[in-house]
Amino acid sequence: MIETRNIDFYYGSFHALKNVSIRIEPHTVTAFIGPSGCGKSTFLRLFNRMNDLIENTSLTGECIVDGENIYNKSVQVDDLRKKVGMVFQKPNPFPKSIFENVAYGLRVNDVRDKAFIRQRVEESLVSAALWDEVKDKLKKSAFELSGGQQQRLCIARALAVSPSILLMDEPASALDPISTSKIEELIHILKQEYTIVIVTHNMQQAARVSDRTGFFMLGELVEYSDTKKMFLNPEKAETQNYITGRFG
Amino acid sequence: MRKRIRKITEHLMQGLFTLSGGVTSLAIILIIIFLFKEGLGLFRSSEVEKAYVLAVNVSNPVGALDSRQIKEIFDYTYTNWSELGGADAEIIPFRFEDIFSIYDESELGNDYELLPEKLGEVIASEPNILAFLPELYVPKDNADLRILPLRNISPRSFFGGIEWMPTATPAAQFGVLPLIMGTLWVSFFAILIALPLGLGVAIYLSELADERMRKLLKPAIELLAGIPSVVYGFFGLVVLVPLIQRALNLPVGETALAGSLILAIMALPTIITIAEDAMRATPKAMREASLALGATHWQTIYKVIVPYASSGIMAAVVLGVGRAIGETMAVLMVTGNAAVMPRSMFESVRTIPATIAAELGEAPSGGTHYQSLFLLGCILFLITLVVSISAEVISKQPVNKGL
User: Fold this and answer.
1) What is the C-alpha separation between B369 and B363, in angstroms, rounded?
2) Domain chopping of chain A, boundaries
3) Predicted pLDDT at B402
């Protein structure tokens, strides 16, 4: 479960997130939508502290994952990131073999048991619906895969360390329609086991895959409700305008 | 009309640039041709000094001698003809000047016109003599005297020889092995010192240093590359050499170690700059992917960033080596320049560039010494060519490796 309370986030003096509070239930898919620069990706990257990599940022408020404020001093960032996996906008496999890509998270976790690694790699590739396509070429470079396959490889890589939460930052925006639909099907299946938070600028995608949707604008969470309700009967005028394509 | 002028100007400019490119390439090719032409002339030169011959008594059965044997005879290392396939008799080496200890100047005539005759007498009277004479004074029609056939300097004695004595008479020794080994020796240890250090600094600069530190350090390191090598040499001579001598309690501080240290310092800026650029070129997506999987910063550095940048790092190393191999002045000043096969880091060695710089001034133009120095230049050229080509090949390698 993820919960944020009164999050304010700044890039230097730029106020990127304004008093955002949200509750995300386990085993649901939550989509964040909104125009470019609205803060939805920034918000997503709070959950695994990816924003720490950017210099000169500041944060107030609480971000609670599994009952613990992850911005507490006592929290080990690398442990947090094992629990909160992430898939990025562009497929970013390592310049290693398919097998080693998936095994990477285990290896940095000091897993040495070869049989276990092999088993985990297979399970992860199966979960990411990629196993049948790559089982005969695990030793081949990940760069030999197509873009859609690479993205599913990245999902498998994230799953291998057994996270409980999966963050997806526009995971299909760089892919063709067929690959996109495969990723969406995958999200449906993964929902059984993982809590998924997805950022997308594609409203149809949000409508198709998510249970709940949050609409961001200018750093504010304008509306957050069940996806069906959001798309059929939004409360706020801005949401209505955005969904119907009047701006954004 | 204006369009026409512009077109003509453009054509003119194009021609000019093509020409300048052509001239440059031509100049480079000519330099290389000149280098090899001068250098390879060595193998068409006789193994003894120009315009001199070796003569023996006609009763001596020995055939041609090679330059090493000749040198050893005059060094009294070979003392018996039987060692060289002749009779069991002591070798009596005879230099042309020795005639003056046998005969008075007055006995040789006013213009030394009797000199050939007297030389003939000496050779005729001594069956075991090996005489080294100027061609000019070889006695004519002397049946007691035989001129030894002379060989040309062989590539084998050049590339395989272990003695570099280019001014020895009668037979100069051009064994380049000590020089090649000295060069590789000093460069190898320089890289051994510079590589871990350079890589460490590069990792620090690209991954660990904050922006302010980086902005301060990077230009400072790049500045190091601009210091003239003679200044490094001076520093080495005044600071490093006495330090090494005292610290290690050596008879002399001018050792291969001093050369390697100076070269390492000189190669560092190249290695650091290129390796750091390569590491910073690792896409942000790679770092993020690694960190998002729970890898620590350090794991990300050595499992993702260094492998990703490995071709750039290799190129940095090779270019650093290239700099080390070709470096002349600093090495000349601190290595002591003894042309012997290197055995340890704590002895003097001599490198190819240092040899050329030190000896070209005193080598008579066109002579074997001069030619041999050009051939050294060719060797150096080939070594650095190989180094640059490998740098080129390595840096063009696709990133997709380290599987």
Assistant:
1) 6
2) 27-37+78-243
3) 43
Domain spans in chain B, listed from the N-terminal domain onward: 52-152, 177-395
Whether B52-152 shares its CATH topology with B177-395 is answered no
Residue type, B279: M
Q: Which of B294, B296, B401 sits opposite A95 (nearest CB)?
A: B401
pLDDT tens digits, residue range B274-331? 999 999 999 988 999 999 999 999 999 989 999 888 888 888 888 888 888 888 888 9
A141 and B400 within 8 Å at the Cβ level: the answer is: yes
pLDDT digits (tens, 9 = 90+) for B252-268: 889 999 999 999 999 99
Tell me, what DSSP letter sits at residue B237?
Answer: I
What class, spelled out in words, does domain A27-37+78-243 have in CATH?
alpha beta
Q: Which tokens in the block code for residue A242?
A: 């955005």
Nearest by CB: A50 against B288, B299, B304: B288
Residue B366, pLDDT score: 84
Class of domain B52-152: alpha beta
Tokens 């006995």 appear where? B107
From chain B, pick out residues whose CB is under 8 angstroms from the CB of A164. Answer: none
Residue A165 has pLDDT above 80, yes or no: yes
B380 closest CA partner among B29, B30, B36: B36
Number of neighbouring beta carbons within 10 Å of residue B33: 10
Interface list for B 294-333 with A (CB within 8 A) = 294-296, 299, 303-304, 307-308
Of A139, A141, A161, the CB nearest to B294: A161
Residue with tokens 């285990």: A106
Superfamily for the B177-395 domain: MetI-like (1.10.3720.10)
Prediction ipTM score: 0.90
Average pLDDT, chain B: 88
Q: Distance between CA B197 and CA A42 in Å, rounded? A: 38
Length of chain A: 248
